[in-house]
Amino acid sequence: MPDGGVISHTGDITFAVGGDVNLTIGNFAIGFDAGRVSETNSGFFVADTLEDSLGIDILFDISNPGRLLVQNDELTVADADLLLAPELASLLSLDGFEGTDIGDTRIDADIVPLLGNPTPVVSLFIEPAAVSEEDAPLTTQFRFVVDREIPPEGLPILFGGEGNDLIEILDQLDGSFPQDLIGMESLGFFPELGAVGLRLLEREGILTRTIANDIIEEADRTFTFKIVPDDTGVLGSAYLVDSQNGSDTLTLTDDNGGPGIGPMVSLSTSSTELTEGEEFTVNFSVDGDIPDGGLSVLVDGNQDGVLGEFSLFNEDGTPAFTTTGISGIPEVGDSRGGAFLVTLIEPNASITLSVFDDGPTEGPETVTFDLVNGEVYEPASAASSVTLTLNDFEVVGTDASETLVGNDAANSVTSQGGDDVVAGGLADDILLGGDGDDILRGDRNARTTQDGEPGGNDIIFGGDDNDRIGGKAGNDILSGDAGDDLIWGDDGDDILMGVTGDDILVGDNFSDGSGSDLFVFGNGDGTDTILDFEVGIDRIGLVEGELMFADLTLTQDGNNTLLGVTSTGETLAVLNNVQASALGESSFEVVPDVSNPSQALALV
User: Fold this and answer.
1) Quick one: pLDDT at residue 599?
2) How many distinct structural domains can be found in the chain?
3) Which end of the chain has the least Cβ crowding within 10 Å, N or C?
């Protein structure tokens, strides 16, 4: 096919089918596909362009050798045969007859010039398309084919997968073998697109990957990969994705192992309730024979990056853990930092390590580790999973009602259950109320407002039930969470969030203003009452992604203003002794959603 043009139908195509019988069809186009080139096939084909019940596009291939002559805007096919295409042979149930010469050819067509160089079309082929792990290491090739010459500087393209296939295939690769690039180079990963950039330096580029024979028992899985159009312009590249061969699949099978094969492995820990910096032990028990060289087992943490919750290495790179009954050093078991691999050489083995102390208070975290079913071992049904609670609070209460008071250093306190009294002391504290009707005070454990006295910038979350929260001195972030709460900001520039329930919010303490406070509201949180809103000093925060000023109604109700939502009719807040006419857009601002101490710390 000539550069700068496409071949389009203006007449009919007639071919002999035997004897004196001829057949004529119309509405056709002639195209070229480099993937169809063979010893007998020129790569040019005749395609049906009708939207009809035939249901296929390519009807015939044009033979090789042969000659296509373009002259005076006319096309002549010389010394070439028309071959039955595989697509049409399959449709007619003529399997085995693809490539058959169907007779003499007469083609009438026009050449339609295009302005500038035509846009290249990129195709993808995966070979082989199915791999058994038991045949591994086995290489699979991803072939990228361009239908025309590419620019001297190369053709940048994007290569991706269906869903997370491009990322999850990494766990199936054997990194000890070269992963070759031929005729192209990598441009890196574009996480916002979930795609890899490749620069094709030749009309055919080959990416070679080696499949690993891993230790785990897996169901068969098919991965789908595709050429991704550069719609966002991140590469600044112009190309089209082949409509028929723009994607391909790779199926991996695991033909080893099965239920009941190999020794039984159990998993346990010395403790499941842990605090940051605390040491604990992971125990493995093997019931059955351990193979020569050890038994490799995989433990999955079910979260990306969960291994980062633990101290694994010292600053000098040496292990920060100790092991017994294990060969070598445990390894990261996947590409996401969510699993680890150990080789057991004794019936009872262990790893002793510590929870990583990362400083900022995040609140309790829960992580679960599971023994993954293996090809040559089986997880014990009653001891294959452990769930750990990681608590980074220095003071942890119980389910009883109690008083928990910090010192004048920065404290983190969680009261758990019960109707508790919690006070942080005079530094920057983080307090969590938990269940029960709690009293939480940012600084001193006293009823006084602490005006003019020093105090910390505290973060307080009330938790469930009906709490009373006082920020005291300092610029505090106060959240009532669930329940009907009473919240005082007291002295300082405070952020008050009632969250769910019908809460009462007091920015200061009725002391003629002790700061500029921000009262935050989101959709469906209940109706709060602000007792001391000061126009021009205090502000109202609208949760990002939930509300904007244009969504609101301001209604005068006696001496009070009702803050409502137009679309739902709900009332977010009652502003006591405030005139609705005094409030404008300048009294409002959009703020991030804050539902835990980590998000609150990001505002500080």
Assistant:
1) 83
2) 4
3) C
385 with 334, same domain: the answer is yes
Kindly state whether residue 498 falls inside one of the protein's structural domains.
Answer: yes
CA distance linking residue 311 with residue 399, whole number of Å: 30
DSSP 586: G
Beta bridge partners of 62: 82
Q: Can you give the three-state secondary structure of 211-229, one letter per residue? A: ECCCCECCCCEEEEEEEEC
Give pTM, 2 decimals. 0.49
Structure tokens at 548: 């904007």
**Is the pLDDT at 477 greater than 80, yes or no?**
yes
Tokens of 228: 């991704």
- Residue 471, domain member (yes or no): yes
Taking CA atoms, 341 is separated from 211, 304, 355, in Å, by 18, 15, 19
β-partners of residue 550 are none
The secondary structure element, H or E, covering residue 168 is helix 165-168
| Sign, Cα dihedral of 299, 303, 304, 307 | negative
Which parts of 482-530 are beta strand (E)? 486-488, 495-497, 504-506, 518-521, 528-530
Alpha-carbon gap, residue 223 to 249, rounded angstroms: 6
pLDDT digits (tens, 9 = 90+) for 564-597: 999 999 999 999 999 999 999 999 999 999 988 8
Euclidean distance between CA atoms 470 and 421, whole angstroms: 11
What is the Cα–Cα distance from 325 to 349, expressed in whole angstroms?
4
Evaluated on CA atoms 13, 17, 22, 23, the torsion sign reads negative
User: Would strands 348-355 and 240-241 be described as parallel, antiparallel, or unpaired?
Assistant: unpaired
Residues 466 and 484 in one domain: yes
Cβ atoms 385, 369 nearer than 8 A: yes
Residue 375 resides in a domain? yes
Tens-digit pLDDT profile for residues 196-252: 999 999 999 999 988 888 787 778 899 999 999 999 999 999 999 998 999 999 999
Range of 94's domain?
A: 5-113
Q: How far apart are CA 342 and CA 300, in angstroms?
A: 12
d(CA 272, CA 283): 12
Contact in structure between 432 and 463 (CB atoms under 8 Å): yes
Share of the chain above pLDDT 70, in %: 84
* Lookup: tokens for 197: 């950039």
The three state secondary structure string of 75-131 is EEEECCCEEECHHHHHHCCCCCCCCCECCCEEEEEEEEECCCCCCCEEEEEEECCEE
Residues 360 and 423 grouped into a single domain: no
Q: Output the CA angle 221-367-461, nearest 5 degrees.
A: 130
Integer Cα distance of 518 and 339 in angstroms: 43
Residue 27 falls inside a structural domain: yes
Helix locations, 22-119, DSSP H: 86-91
